[in-house]
Structure formats: structure tokens, C-alpha cells
Design brief:
347 residues; alpha/beta; Rossmann fold; 2 domains; six-stranded parallel beta sheet; three-stranded parallel beta sheet; elongated
């Protein structure tokens, strides 16, 4: 297991690499150039020499095919007798990157033996850009030991009292569609509801100004940062989660992990049709989908979810069962291992 000796997160805080307790691996750490930049960082070590000394059967880079570190390890694998190499990816839009990233990406596609895209649409992007190898869809998952309903799901929703509690969890940025959500909530003010926002970001002043303008600021609670180990309890404390993302020319929702986490805790979801959101909601049966950036469509979905308690309880039960079968980390670990073993046996 090769990791940066330390990593700078988006808030400028450095974390030291350490092995997860109980994980059986030999940890190798090294400093990196361009620390904090996922596509730009590279390891300050001789990757080719490390692979020659360690003699792995397979090499896997948990990074995008256009990332410099992925190219670094792919090239080192090819230089050591073409050790089977694979990569991970979340990129769901066809983008033409500048040189030298475009060259490196093409090299990775030509010299990779397997890939783990998080969705079918991500795999389609790779096919359009030249990847011809096998791929196993490996979605973003959740730890069932952390995310689970502490109480009976159906009973919890059927006996809930007080205002409907709607939650948003994520970055408060323009593309998350919160302005559309605010305008939609104005259309359901005849119902009793409260919006709880967990997260923060540069678009917060604009959202607060719109809330004040619409006269519903008193119905919204801003929680800011919530510690990771408190998130599951928060999901179970609300009646539904909303993810109103809106696509941009260079972005659309790649996955929406909060949807899976909420459903794992027995909380139904409502989301736009941006990126992977509608696929998760519809296949799981765990909520409702509305047209992105469409105030009327969003308001209709919210009203339906708020007003129909039995339907909401049914969505929560169905969605919980589905995500535990398809997104729980033990299930995904088995899928990952099966693909790695298939590559190993094909040598």
C-alpha cells in the first residue's frame, strides 16, 4: 500500500498516513510534489525501482486516468514486464485535457488491464476516449457499521410528528441548486416544514439573502460542519434528504453519496435528474426525482413527499433494503476482489 507520507486537504490541514487497524498490508509512504492536488500530485520516489523490488502481481491506482500519479504508476508497471495495471474513475463528462495530461491519459488507457468506474456513464466516457479493457462498476459505498437505522424504519415515519424536517447535506455552492430549492419551498409554505442545512460554502450569503427575500428564513436552520461520526444519527433525525444539483457545462453530479448514506439510515430522498442522482433514486425506489433547475417540478416532488406519509415510509424501507444489497462496503469489496482475481488468473 503506497500512500503520500502526508496529505493536505482542501482546508489546508495536513494528515499523516497510517494503516487502518486490522488491515493486512505493508505500508510504504513517500513525500509528494503538488500536495493537495488530486490530479497533479506525483510521488517523490522511484516507482519503477519499488515495483522491481516488491514484485507485485497487480498494480492498482486509486485515481483518475488523467492524473499524473496514475500515469506514474502505469508507466512503472509497464516498465516492469507489463504488470497488469488498473485505475479508478469518477469522471462522467468527456473532457479534452491540455497537454501533457492528454498524453498521459491516452497512455493509461492503452496500458491498463482493468478499470473501476463508479457508474455506467463514467465507463461510457472512457470508451469514448479510447479505453478498450474490462471494467467493473464500483460505486461509492457506505459502511453498514456506521450507517444503519437504529429504529424500525416504517414505524419511525408513520409515527413522526411536528413539522416535516427536510435536510440538505453538502457544499453550499451554486451548482448544488439551493436557489431552486428555496423557490420551490416557497410554493409549499401552506405545509409545515423545516429545512436543515449541514455544510457551508461560498454560496451561503446568496442563499440566505433569497430566504430573507422570500420570507422563509425563519424556517431554515444552518448547522455548518457536522462531525463524521454524528452524520448517521442526523440522517435518522430528519424525514427526508434533498439533493437539488444542477448540471453545468463542465460538471454534473457524479454520484451523490449522501443519497446512499441517507437511505442506509432509513431516510427517503428527493433529488434532481442531474448526473447519477436519478439512477440511484429510481433503481432503489427510495425517493422522488424532479427536473433539475425546475422550481415547479421540485415543488411538486416536495409536496408529494411531505403529504403522503405511507408512501414516504415505503420509499424508506425499499431504499434501505436496496442500498444494503448494492452499496454496502462489504459487497463492494467482494466485487473489487473478484475483478482483481480475474485479472490475476488471466495472466
Amino acid at each position: 500500500m503506497v500512500l503520500p507520507s502526508q496529505w493536505k486537504n482542501e482546508y489546508g490541514t495536513y494528515f499523516q498516513s497510517e494503516m487502518l487497524a486490522g488491515f493486512d498490508a505493508d505500508l510504504v509512504t513517500a513525500p509528494v510534489l503538488m500536495n493537495g492536488s488530486v490530479p497533479l500530485y506525483v510521488y517523490r520516489l522511484f516507482a519503477k525501482r519499488l515495483l522491481r523490488n516488491r514484485r507485485p502481481g497487480i498494480v492498482y491506482s486509486h485515481n483518475e486516468p488523467y492524473a499524473l500519479s496514475t500515469f506514474q504508476w502505469c508507466q512503472a508497471s509497464a516498465s516492469n514486464g507489463h504488470i497488469p495495471f488498473g485505475f479508478f474513475s469518477c469522471q462522467n463528462l468527456v473532457k479534452r485535457y491540455p497537454l501533457p495530461f492528454r498524453w498521459g491519459e491516452s497512455w493509461v488507457y492503452r496500458n491498463s488491464s482493468f478499470a473501476f468506474p463508479i457508474t455506467q456513464s463514467v465507463d461510457e466516457v472512457h470508451r469514448q476516449k479510447g479505453y478498450r479493457g474490462p471494467a467493473t462498476i464500483l460505486p461509492l459505498g457506505f459502511d453498514p457499521k456506521l450507517y444503519f437505522p437504529a429504529n424500525d424504519i416504517a414505524q419511525r415515519h408513520m409515527t413522526a410528528s411536528g413539522p416535516f424536517r427536510l435536510a440538505f447535506v453538502g457544499r453550499v455552492v451554486e451548482e448544488k441548486g439551493l436557489l431552486t430549492l428555496v423557490k420551490a419551498l416557497v410554493q409549499v409554505t401552506d405545509l409545515e416544514w423545516r429545512l436543515i442545512v449541514v455544510g457551508y460554502g461560498p454560496h451561503e450569503p446568496a442563499i440566505k439573502a433569497e430566504l430573507a427575500k422570500c420570507g422563509i428564513a425563519d424556517r431554515v436552520e444552518w448547522r455548518g460542519f457536522l462531525p463524521h461520526d454524528h452524520v448517521a444519527a442526523f440522517y435518522e433525525s430528519v424525514d427526508a434528504l434533498v439533493l437539488p444539483s444542477e448540471s453545468r457545462p463542465n460538471w454534473k453530479e457524479q454520484f451523490g453519496r449522501v443519497l446512499v448514506e441517507a437511505l442506509a439510515c432509513g431516510t427517503p430522498v428527493v433529488g434532481s435528474d442531474s448526473g447519477e442522482i436519478p439512477n440511484i433514486i429510481r433503481t432503489s425506489g427510495g425517493g422522488l426525482v424532479f427536473k433539475e433547475a425546475d422550481v415547479e417540478s421540485c415543488a411538486v416532488a416536495l409536496r408529494q413527499l411531505m403529504a403522503n406519509v405511507p408512501a414516504r415510509a415505503n420509499m424508506a424501507v425499499r431504499g434501505n433494503a436496496y442500498v444494503n444489497e448494492h452499496y454496502a462496503l462489504p459487497k463492494l469489496a467482494d466485487r473489487f476482489a473478484d475483478q482483481i482475481e480475474a485479472v490475476a488468473w488471466s495472466r
